[in-house]
Amino acid sequence: MPEIHFIDVTNRDAAQTARIGISKLEKTMINVYLGQMGIHQSEFAFPYIRHEQNYAMANLELQRMGVMGSLRLQGWCRALVQDVEASLTTGVEVLSVSISTSDQMIRHKFRGKLDRDSVIKEMVAAVTYAKRRGVKSIGANAEDSSRTDLGYLIEYAQAAKEAGADRFRYCDTVGYDTPASIYQRVKTIAERVKIPIELHCHNDLGMAVANSISGAQGAVDGGVDAYINTTVNGIGERAGQADLLSCILAVMFARDMDGYRIGDKLNLKIAAKLSKYVSQAFGIPIPINQPGVGANAFAHASGIHADGTIKDRRNYELYDFELLGIEEERIPAGRVITTGEYGGLAGMKYVYERLGITFHSDEEAYRILELVQYANSHTQSPLTDDELIFIAKYPEQVRKILTMTP
Fold it and tell me: 9, 36, 69, 116: which is deepest, by most CB within 10 A?
């Protein structure tokens, strides 16, 4: 039976969202949490862009050290040979190449530079070059798939497969599909081409999660593995994308999903921590009604609901909040010592001692203090305990992550 996997694209797609931003250290911590959660893959960088390359190389080092568990790190680039070539200088071994396929984009974005045939030709050249250079796994993305003629989309996917692509990404770039349409289109591609299919759905019409689940069903029913693209908390361009936790919970608990299997062992107790961290990193509060982790996700006020929940939580709750690692939040009171951009040695050592970390010498402590100061200047928000521990454990990789050379 084909399986469903999750490829989180927070560090690529959500990171390019207008009006918000995230530091390289914060992107790294997201990869660590995704690894702890058991997520299959993170689309973690634009490895062909110079300011991403130190971050990319450091994260790949951390991955090889086992810091991110079994998480695979996937780079993204345009379907151009020069982009692939630049990406490979980082050592990335999993890659996605992307090009637009709809007539809307070909006519009004490329404006005569490319036609249907040359779009496929460029994608094939990029995929072929990547495989020849030793990329272990490559996906071919069709931007604006949902507005692309289905026959042409099948031709594109078939050409990608023949060139050596391991996955085809069906992109509902502007949220145009419905659950019914994406199911049928993806199932047809799966049956005709027999290539694993990624579902990359945007939320412009509020259907990103529903479309992702339906598309995954179409892929599995068509006989191939499905890879659902997600972002944490659904953050993303315009109205956002498919929320990671919502998609996981839908596969696990929704009606008629018993025949669909998640192919990775997930630890959902990381979900609440990950959601809260991403909220802090992007500066976007978690909506009160966010599935699973919103403040009201397990709150009951109506007398009928409260009575029913007290008698048996299953009356009004499909799943348990304990599953998601939700805990009572404790905010320190009284004397509070923190460290960061303007912290000194004594305060930093005090903070680290409370975290169970001591330094062998003041020289070592000063090296970590410098990294803490730089890290805080990058994030411009208080460093979390996990960030501080990470800095002390992996100082050389942190130094690389924080270094961007113009």
Answer: 9
Residues 49, 12 share a domain: yes
In 3D space, the residue among 345, 393, 389, 352 whose CA is nearest the CA of residue 369 turns out to be 345
- 182-209 burial code (b ≥16 CB/10 A, e <16): bbbbbbbbbebbebbbbbbbbbbeebbb
For 79, the token pair is 């379907």
Tell me how far apart the alpha carbons of residues 138 and 132 are, in angstroms, rounded to a whole number.
Answer: 11
Angle (CA) 22-275-399 rounded to 5° is 40
Q: How far apart are CA 107 and CA 398, in angstroms?
A: 44
Number of residues that this document lists for the chain: 406
368, part of any domain? yes
Is the C-alpha dihedral spanning 179, 182, 185, 186 positive or negative? negative
Over residues 23-76, the pLDDT tens digits come to 999 999 999 999 999 999 999 999 999 999 999 999 999 999 999 999 999 999
Any idea of the CA torsion for 58, 376, 42, 5, to the nearest 10 degrees? 140
pLDDT tens per residue, range 360-369: 999 999 999 9
Q: What tokens does 398 get? A: 């942190």
Supply angle C-alpha 284, 142, 153, rounded to 5: 140
- Strand partners for 97: 77, 140
pTM beyond cutoff 0.90: yes
- Please identify which residue in the block is written with the tokens 């049928």: 184
Question: How many domains does the chain fold into?
Answer: 3
Asked if residue 256 and residue 313 are part of one domain, the reply reads no
Between CA 86 and CA 53 the distance in angstroms is 9
Looking at the DSSP bridge assignments, the partners of residue 202 are 241
User: Mean pLDDT over residues 92-99, rounded?
Assistant: 98
For 119, phi then psi, to 5°, come to: -60, -50
Whose CA is closest to 389, among 29, 10, 27, 60? Answer: 29
pLDDT at 270: 98
**Structural Rg of the chain based on CA atoms:** 22
